[in-house]
Amino acid sequence: MLAIGGVVKGTIGVGLPVVVIAVLSNFLPVPLVLALVTVPILLTNLWQVMEAGKPMVPLRRFWPMIVCLIVFIWIGARFVTDLDPRVLYALIGTAVTLFAVTSYFKLHGTVPPSAERWAGPVAGMLGGLLGGISTIWGPPMMMYFVMLRLPKEVYIQAVGVVWFMASIPLVVAYIRYGILTTHTALLSAIACIPGAVGFFVGQRLRKRINQELFRTLLLWFLLLVGLNLIRRAIF
Over the chain, what is the mean pLDDT? Predict the structure, then answer.
């Protein structure tokens, strides 16, 4: 599953935790799954930043959102071990479902430059809370970036930098709250192998296949996975 998540991220720039957590949460305890994906998230985000280059450009523009994201990741991580698993299933399932639906139908407006001062921090806060609880911080900020109508290159660069910045406090918070222990950190490091292989393959696929077809199939898959997690939260 980590290899598949890596392929997804390598192909479209995001999606490793969404795919891995949504599927593995059906078979393993949620805190263990969160620990398993933590180091692969850090590695693949660093890889993406190095590939995109010029990290200071998005840092200068989006630093208020990044600060809010980091603070609320720490806050969200505090609640992981205290929450009922059904609540986590509901949160993760809802995030995955909303991500799939809004991406498929492109349900978004625009954010004018004058609104970036407050809209960016709000997206960072929402993404941070969700990310601290589930490692899936992407949907609120991805929607924000789309509503800014960023050019493709700028979008990929921004996602790479922001996602990497978010993954650092996530690792620290999970260590602090006992989710990432010596044992689970070793397992997470081992999980980097299939994740990195998948990421490399995804990068190659991005240049060779019909991107729109792949995107459509992926979003339908994520929709089904998200709905199944919501079902598990209800019964």
Answer: 85
